[in-house]
Design brief:
Elements (H helix, E strand, L loop, with lengths): L20 H26 L13
């Protein structure tokens, strides 16, 4: 019985690209938005009220 020949997959080439000004601005904006969101979530979870309502979403 013949076995299938072993063929190695070629290595993936990574092609670097220079960051454009638009990409850099977009990345900085995304970073600021993530920080804002995480800060807001922490404020809600650590506030005296916490999450208002029960687990079913009622008030």
């Amino acid at each position: 019985m013949c076995s299938a020949p072993k063929i190695e997959a070629p290595a993936v080439q990574r092609i670097g690209s220079s960051a454009s000004d638009a990409a850099v601005r977009e990345g900085e904006l995304e970073r600021r938005l993530r920080r804002t969101r995480s800060g807001s979530a922490a404020d809600i979870l650590t506030s005296p009220l916490g999450l208002v309502g029960d687990a079913m979403g009622g008030a």
